[in-house]
């Protein structure tokens, strides 16, 4: 199936769509997304070694503590890739174990390239034949939104999702994302509008899914930017909470009425409570309560 990102992709009728799975997970568990980011500093703090064994112990602990209770786990691929093939093998287990325990897995890989290469990324992260396949992945639209068509196509065909970088949480983001394109829109607004077009018609009424398969990353740190978030039709991933300085109230300022579709995402804020399962669970539960008051 070929997806024209300017028009609505055809939805495979027999698939359990990402939007429907996400809606169920959020209804059962709340919208919190917790990152699995085995930072070297966190390995030290947990008394683990800075090697693949330490990363494996760390990631296994996070999955054991949280995969049966949070809606989404988001492994940060970079922290696994830095250990080469053995690190990637750990990531494969994290994905399988987290999904088996009921969490949706969002692979934070931020991939983007020319379309023919993007096809291979789609096969790696969105096709169930791959051991790295999760429920969704992050993607960079800065080779042009249309270059992501193979990702969206593969996601839709397999009932998975893609989260496209829109307004990232880092201070350097606005240099590119706030730049004004020839038609007067910012680069970020063109991304938001392209996501809206890709999602249009992709919300299968029968599933009652409130989300299309294409989400957007909008950092909780970005403040009121004047971008129109109202027509996206997919979920928002909101990193930048906790360690990067944003708090629950920032979600209201950044997302306004769109905040009901937000998945607040925290990594270090929860992970530094470890390694005890009970402490990780308490930290995740505190964060969830904090955000719920604003997102309800
Ligand atoms: O705009 C973005 C996109 C992705 N991230 C990723 O989220 C986590 C944030 O970690 P914290 O410890 O909660 O700061 C990390 O994996 C980033 O690569 C982001 O921060 N901002």
TrEMBL record:
Keyword Lyase: yes
InterPro entries named among the record's database cross-references: Aldolase_TIM, OMPdecase_AS, OMPdecase_type-2, OMPdeCOase_dom, RibuloseP-bd_barrel
Molecular-function annotations in GO: orotidine-5'-phosphate decarboxylase activity
SUPFAM superfamilies: Ribulose-phoshate binding barrel
EC identifiers of the protein: 4.1.1.23
Active-site residues, as the UniProt record annotates them: 110 (proton donor)
Name this polypeptide is given: Orotidine 5'-phosphate decarboxylase
Species this protein is from: Cryptosporangium arvum DSM 44712
């Amino acid at each position: 199936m070929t997806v024209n990102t300017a028009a609505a992709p055809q939805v495979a009728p027999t698939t359990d769509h990402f939007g429907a799975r996400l809606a169920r997970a959020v209804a059962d568990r709340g919208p919190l997304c917790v990152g699995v980011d085995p930072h070297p500093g966190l390995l030290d703090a947990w008394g683990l070694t800075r090697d693949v064994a330490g990363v494996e112990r760390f990631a296994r602990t996070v999955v054991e503590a949280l995969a049966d209770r949070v809606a989404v786990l988001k492994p940060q691929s970079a922290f696994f890739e830095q250990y080469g093939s053995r690190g990637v093998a750990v990531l494969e287990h994290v994905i399988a174990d987290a999904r088996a325990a009921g969490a949706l897995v969002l692979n934070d890989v931020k991939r983007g390239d020319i379309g023919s290469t993007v096809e291979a990324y789609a096969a790696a992260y969105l096709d169930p034949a791959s051991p790295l396949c999760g429920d969704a992945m992050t993607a960079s639209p800065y080779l042009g939104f249309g270059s992501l068509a193979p990702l969206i196509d593969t996601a839709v065909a397999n009932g998975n999702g893609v989260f496209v970088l829109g307004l990232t949480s880092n201070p350097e983001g606005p240099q590119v994302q706030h730049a004004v394109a020839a038609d007067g829109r910012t680069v970020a607004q063109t991304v938001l509008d392209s996501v809206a077009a890709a999602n249009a018609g992709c919300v299968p009424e029968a599933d009652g899914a409130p989300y299309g398969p294409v989400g957007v990353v909008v950092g909780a740190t970005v403040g009121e930017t004047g971008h129109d978030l109202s027509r996206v039709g997919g979920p928002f991933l909101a990193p930048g909470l906790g360690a990067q300085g944003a708090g629950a109230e920032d979600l209201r300022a950044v997302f306004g009425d769109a905040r009901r579709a937000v998945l607040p995402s925290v990594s270090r804020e929860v992970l530094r409570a470890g390694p005890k399962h009970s402490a990780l669970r308490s930290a995740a539960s505190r964060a969830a309560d904090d955000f719920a008051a604003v997102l309800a």
